[in-house]
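ok so i was messing around last nite and threw this chain in just to see what happens. nothing serious, just curious
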Amino acid sequence: FVQQTERSLQLMTQRALEAESNVEKLKQEIFILQGELETSKMENKNLRAGQTTDLRAVKHNIDFALQNLHKIITGANWSIRQLASGAESLNFVAEILKSTGKISEAEAEED
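result:
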């Protein structure tokens, strides 16, 4: 039982670490896309100021940035849910291990 619990704990820890890694990657992608969005906003501002910029290109850039940002947000939300689920599982395993320790102590006292 303890070995199975330890294996579960290792698996859940690995899943939590992978989810954290995914969150970090997604944060980096969000940062890049926010930069692209700011660039598109500046191009839009310049267009409104009368500078020559292709309106369709600006709209395309903004749409592209927004689509990618939405995909990244969706992925980040999934990773956060995975991370939270892993944390809940780790807490459950910790409680089981704590209970196992109390049972072992009680058995040792009986002997």
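not much to say yet. The mean pLDDT is 83.
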